[in-house]
Please model this.
Amino acid sequence: MERSEKKRRYDETLIAVVLVLVVIGLVVLLSTSSYNGRVKFHDAFYYLKKQGFATFIGLLGMVIVSRVDYHKWAVLAFPGYLAAIALSVAVMLFGDEYNGSKRWLSLGPVSFQPSEFAKVAVILFLACLVSRNARKMGRFRTLVLMMLPVLPVAALVGASNLSTALIILGIAVVLVFVASPRYSQFIWMGSAGIAFMAVFLAMESYRLERLAIWRNPEEYEKGYQTLQGLYAIGSGGLFGRGLGNSVQKLGFLPEAQNDMIFSIICEELGLVGAGIIILLFLILIWRFFVIATRAPDLLGALIAAGAMAHMMIQVILNIAVVTNSIPNTGITLPFISYGGTSVVFLLLEIGLVLSVSRLIE
Amino acid sequence: MTGLRETILNNVRRREKWNNSAEDVISCNNIFCRVFIMKNKTYNRKKILVVFLCAALVLCALIGRLVYLMIFDAEYYQELAQDLHEREREIKAARGEIVDRNGVVLATNRTVCTISVIHSQIEDPDLVTEVLSEELGLDESEVREKVEKVSSMEKIRTNVDKETGDKIREYDLPGVKVDEDYRRYYPYDELASRVLGFTGGDNQGIIGLEVKYEDYLKGTNGTILTVTDARGIELEGVAEDRIEPVAGETLKVSLDYNIQAYCQQAAENVLEEKQAEAVSILLMNPQNGEVYAMVNAPEFNLNEPYELNTGVQAETLSDEELQEQLNQMWRNRCINDTYEPGSTFKIITASACLEEGVVDLDDTFVCPGYRIVEDRRIRCHKVGGHGQETFVEGIQNSCNPVFMDIGLRLGADRFYDYFGEFGLFDLTGIDLPGEAGTIMHRREDIGIVELATMTFGQSFQVTPIQMAVTVSSLINGGTRVTPHIAVGMVDEEGEFIEKFEYETESGVVSEETSETMRTLLESVVSQGSGKNAYIEGYSIGGKTATSQTLPRSANKYISSFIGFAPADDPQILGIVIIHDPKGVYYGGTIAAPVLRDIYDNVLPYLGIEKTEAMVYTK
Model:
């Protein structure tokens, strides 16, 4: 619009970090998945091919999205929100089951995970909604009103994928928090949230069992995955066994290319390698933060803040689970864990943030 | 971090100006358009900073957690992971050899193969089944069952000779594993079969020395530690840990290959000639208990210990019958079975009576061919009787009434005491498994009749080794030695690593009685019933025996002869026992010549020179 004649620069650091992460992700994925690929599909590159294809689509999408002013994408916020609900319903009705969870929609040869789309949709939708009501954000009523439209999405996604629902709620809370001028309300909300979690956990004994497994993974059969992750991490030492030399990925750690991939990074690249990866994520989050604070308007700030919230929640939860710092819950590590839908939408999200960064004066 | 703060603060300052002057809302017809102009206020940026700092803090905490796990806890998890990844594969230790007193190898090892299949690596189960069943001569369905069984590894056959193993290896079938291994091998097949013993499928001793000295012979198995994936498949290119096996030690035995082989030949000859059921020959050193030869003909082939030596095909028998017959075949009659010693036992009766002083050499007796004891008429072997004779003549004639008389003089109680003092109630302690004890009346059950029959070696049973050891102690000056086969463990050069010590007990009889016995028994051979054992130039002492086995009605006999040489300083004592000979069954006629023949060869072999024969008879 009127700012279009100003010089437009992408955030180069962000692009560089994302590209490095994507490349590291693919290398680590190949290392981690080649054994499983060979065993299950007689093709060591099975997972890499699928992930590589998704990454290509994602990068393409990222470039397109970043070239368009994010205000134009805002038009899609509400339809995107409706689509997220529709897809979540669809997956409940027609979804494919894999590993006991109904999370995938198949469209011909391409399978698609609506919950990944829902995260981006919620960020965009809520950013628009909140920035529209920014003046009233000080009021508690507005806070609740802002959160309300998120609940159906969270509930629908949560039916099959509790962890993603928690991420969506987390993103929403961060966005509302950022938009509100007050702090005290959030302390109350935080307390209420913890109380709710406590009741929620106590309601079902299997959730409490998770806590017990978390404390002593050795003593439970279900602690197997956690324990295998710890074996991998412990085996790494300072510099690791070297890229490709993990033993735990050879069937000991089931589905090593998924949620627990970080433990294989620890085993192969050691504390140094794992630290570098965490540092890369920290730089990524820092760039989101810089873009959010410099954004020309609240919408841009909230889009960047939402992406930041998304990235940090997912990275923190994933690493916390892998290191058995919190009870086990299935959360993937962005850009690195295997998952085509995830990488596509993550890159689209980066595209949005880049679009914001372009308008920074 | 300070640089970061600077950036943030500059940003905030720059924005504040702009924010305060700007209009918040610009009207627009689209509800979404309106938000475009909402400004990014200071507090928004502060809050974003709060969120970012929280994230940075938590990520730093997680790095801390990683440091803890990967540096301080690393050892614990590494150990657990290693346990999980490493598979142990055993490397069998070579079993120790058994060598004779001159170093001749009696038991050694041969390389054999174990064929197994690894289910997950098999690519063509049909081909594998076909090749293995053909090469190994196994039933195809049996092989197929193992090939198709879902297990990490299945043994198809052990103890496959190396040639077949190499042949199977050449097929290079995925999933088929040929492991080399050792198998016990006995170069002389049947030689001393029951003494040496054989080993089972896991190379463990089953009978004989092999089981007795298992701990020395078996060695310590080594291990290969390999890293495997979760399916148990070994990873290539990962260094393997290896703990080398320690081979078993070499057992040196007192047996002499040449003597043993000669005795075996002699036993087999008489076995065939007399169509006997079995022939046992035992040669030992009466001074120290070393066994030179222990033959139990017919022997069996140690390399095929599950094939009957009677020529009966195993297939014609039920499993139970086969096992029963195998157990019989594996018995060492010299040790595991008892027999009525018969007249050879007169050596012991005579010693006891001389020691007690109830008889003098020139006491005279009358033999009418029988003695009435209580209501029984107990016959002498000479139906017409020996008439009047001295004690010396009585022993030369092996006259039963003489021994009944002196036995009755001694009395049941004293006789029983001497039994104990001579060690007949104890095991000899020979280093072979399964030694049988003496079967004897209870002290209170010994009446006159029992006593009378016991004096000439009937109505109770002892083992041949017991007879040999007891007689040894009576003629060697009264020292009861522990008979033994194993001498010690030696290294590759034949030097002793460990010498075994065996107990001896002296003073069993007085030196005087012992000397008298040597004299008496020499006269038995030179002039009496044992004259068939006489060799010109050697002084040999001995005693014959012919005893009827139980039940008496079967008319089966055991002929035996115990002899020692040289009579004045016994260096070798032999016992020949012929079970159930056909035709002539007198010990003096058939058993004594066997020992004579053996001594004729063995005495020169042992370096015992011919001397002028002693003449004891006055």
In short: The longest strand of chain B covers residues 105-117. Residues 42-72 of chain B form the longest helix (31 residues).
